[in-house]
Write a structure and sequence with these properties.
With 277 residues, this protein is of the alpha/beta class. The chain is 24% helix and 24% strand. It binds zinc ion (2 copies).
Length: 277
């Protein structure tokens, strides 16, 4: 009896040890590969560049306020650095640019991208696609909150808590759902996960840098990342590809990651086109 018990306990310990040792391979742990902003102390303040239309301003404000309840980070909304070109939504070193426009029938509701070197995030962008948010299906408070909340959180290094749309809502915007009504904001587990990601201190900072240091390959800044053809290889796909993570490797430890929320195909009611390159 006790032998069985101990064996069960040992197995549990080994499983948790395996999760701790290989965070990058276990997406269930809710951070994407332990990517994080380098900073020397907590809480740190991350600037969110406002390049969104007035229809989005209150949602961006809600997202900023929600995530600022974290004990390790605050966000503040600043004038956008790429307002004149929301289509490309070019990144700004040391912060996150948030953009909205009608990106067209791209298939995606929202995209978050981070530029990393090693495990450190150096800049990020979020795009929300008004081509879909202008339709009656998505032009709702709940969908706008969920997508803005989730995409901005990806630029902190936070992953989804759950990727099965058919189970009950967890009460967090990091939970995929067909009904966003109760998944519009973070929950306690999200804040705990942020505390875990940002528990350590770094000797350097990648937050609020005015220029990009460390020889980022020029191609990393110049590419238009608007579609899957530019996103690199698909490294994670869940539940028929409703959510997907792409990685583009520029060498020397430099990478760009792209997180996507696809729109539901309105014509046949199934998830969007998942056979894209
Ligand atoms: Zn670090
Ligand atoms: Zn996501």
């Amino acid at each position: 009896m006790s032998k069985v018990f101990h064996r069960g306990l040992l197995t549990a310990l080994l499983v948790s040890a395996a999760f701790a040792a290989f965070p990058a391979s276990t997406f269930a742990n809710h951070s994407w590969g332990n990517y994080h902003w380098a900073r020397t102390s907590n809480p740190f303040t991350l600037k969110l560049g406002d390049n969104v239309s007035s229809a989005w301003d209150s949602y961006l404000a809600a997202t900023s306020s929600d995530w600022s309840q974290s004990t390790v980070l605050d966000t503040t909304i600043v004038p956008g650095g790429t307002s004149s070109n929301v289509m490309s939504c070019r990144p700004t070193a040391g912060r996150v640019e948030v953009c909205s426009t009608t990106y067209g029938n791209t298939g995606w509701l929202g995209v978050a991208q981070i530029w990393t070197r090693g495990s450190h995030i150096r800049q990020g962008t979020v795009k929300v696609n008004d081509t879909y948010f202008n339709t009656s299906t998505y032009n709702t408070t709940a969908w706008r909150n969920l997508v803005m909340c989730q995409e901005v959180a990806h630029t902190f290094g936070l992953d989804h808590q759950d990727e099965d749309s058919s189970n009950p809502n967890l009460g967090t915007c990091m939970d995929y759902t067909d009904d966003p009504s109760t998944n519009q904001h973070p929950n306690q587990h999200d804040y705990e996960q942020l505390e875990s990601i940002y528990a350590h201190r770094d000797r350097t900072t990648t937050v609020e840098q005015t220029t990009q240091t460390g020889n980022m390959p020029p191609a990393m800044a110049d590419i238009d990342f608007s579609g899957p053809a530019q996103w690199g290889k698909l490294i994670h796909s869940s539940h028929g590809g409703w959510k997907e993570l792409y990685e583009l490797d520029f060498g020397g430890g430099n990478k760009v990651f792209t997180f996507v929320i696809w729109a539901t195909d309105e014509e046949d009611g199934t998830n969007g086109d998942h056979d894209r390159p």
